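Homework-ish question, so no full write-ups if that breaks the rules, but can someone show me the predicted structure for this set?
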Amino acid sequence: MGTRDFIRERFFPHMWCPGCGHGTILNCLIRAIEELGLDKSNIVVVSGIGCSARISGYVDFHSLHTLHGRALAFATGVKFSQPELTIITPMGDGDALAIGGNHFIHAARRNIDITAIVMNNRIYGMTGGQYSPMSCTGDYATTAPFGNIDNPFDAVKLATAAGASFVARTTTYHAKEGISILKKAIRHRGFSVVEFLSQCPTQYGRRNQLVNAPVMLEYLKTHTVPIGSARAAEDPEILERGIFVEELRAEYCDAYEQVIQKEGG
Amino acid sequence: MEENLVFVQGNEACVEGALYAGMSFFAGYPITPSTEIAELLARRLPGRGGRFIQMEDEISSLCAIIGGSLTGNKVMTATSGPGFSLMQEALGFAVMAEIPCVIVNVQRGGPSTGNPTHVGQGDVNQARWGTHGDHAIITLTASTHQDVLEMTVHAFNMAETYRTPVILLFDEVIGHMREKLVIPEAGVLPVVDRLRTSVKRGVDYHPYLPREDGRLPMSDFGGDHRYNVTGLYHDMWGFPSSNPKVVESLLNHLVDKIETNVHEITRYKELYLEDAEVILISFGSAARSTLHTVENRRRRGDRLGYLELQSIWPFPVDLIREKCRKARRIVVVEMNKGQVTGLVKAAVENPERVFLANRIDGELISPTNIKNILRIIQGRGV
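A: Not a homework solution, just the prediction itself:
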């Protein structure tokens, strides 16, 4: 099968702005699934609300476009009731970590076998550029006209502390690395979090001296380094990329299956 | 028969009804006075191959059962006032995406945290209008444990028939009181199973195109058809659309599928209406005291009639109007500030005949309370 077999071509061109990174993430996701050789009738994509959430309409899998922040709650119901399905939940940074923050940490704590992709462009794009829990201190946004005074989450540390058994970070500049990480995340049995740094030139870049998509991609290139690189320790603006956590721990549906077996169900 | 006779709480009767109907997936969050439903299902579902999960809140509980319904399960959650408030967002999603599911609200005193361990019936209108936007909803209730079981089965049947969320509006007294229950043998009560599409794999399937009889056959996630489910207005494939014609016809469909079937959905009980000068209308635990009052006063010669609503939404307007046509007075007995009273007034001719007999202090309204209110209404003094 080619990658075109995994998309609903009649809905293209997609609705994302010129220069948006989300198309790159969609591309990486489809290539990862193609390379894994998965049956597309065995995949359910569950998304929330926002620019990121539109990804579920573009892919030719079972698709569930839910409520803002609730993708993981719906996904938990789908996975827990039908554990043999492969579940992927692409979410925005506000979607996953503001309104959906509680569902995020609890899905991680359960270690339920879902692949959560946080498409982090550090802004609420669809509503017009408000600051998100991933906007950096000092960033400008329509609701932070004098500069953001909030502190952002570190999604990798948050997911790790909450109990996710696979945690990774990559960027839209590093698309090949993204494919490779997504493949591992999907194959991993347990809760996988991939923070995928993405660019929003329309709502974030033009307010924050990153004038267009190439400049933003250049920023992702120069401000991220592989895990363990010395530069990250020296400069707090530099983020590490790669796989931070990859451990095999009891998966939630497997654990419940043992309860069912024990009870004779 | 005897081995099926048990002495249980109303919450247990609800569990028996849900299992009788074939419920196989429950997600919930602990809240008084509904918690026993979750506790019992945590124990009983795995042995039947079903699944129980305790979620992080009521928001995710309803979201999770919607997910579980899409993979082909009959699903339920149970809560009370504050949790029911949190479920309103996902309730609207289930209405819009036409997902069969059952939501139990064992009512306590509200608003807010209110009176958690005491009875109330103040969620009648929240059940109807708690989620935003125009929509229709089915809401059922019960006054005895036998009825709790039967209405729970009816709730699943209605959810599957109309592809819709159904609300079971019980209350603290019904939930916690113990009385006898006969668990019917399989086959005694009708059970409506999931209607699945006969469209073969590879053939275009329309999840949102009603058949001639109005029903919409489903396809399980993970099965033959990959389609889209969304809370946005959508076309017959489930893909988002803001086309004015699509929007208008979907909203009309969502309301009409329930409002035009009010006679199929409605359940009620009546006694002594033929000669009744005063009709007492009630539901839930308040109906128990109402029935006692009617029986008691009739023995003393008062021509009282009894009408118990076992379904509240869609409100059975025609039924109420017809049954109350000849009565001199109509008294609605409920434990709130008159939520059903207002509906009855709107339904009958000469609404000045309609009175409220209520109690709102967290205690069950008693036959003596009702008798005293009747004396005032009938001008017999206190």
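Now go work out the reasoning yourself. Hint: The two ends of chain B are 47 Å apart (CA to CA).
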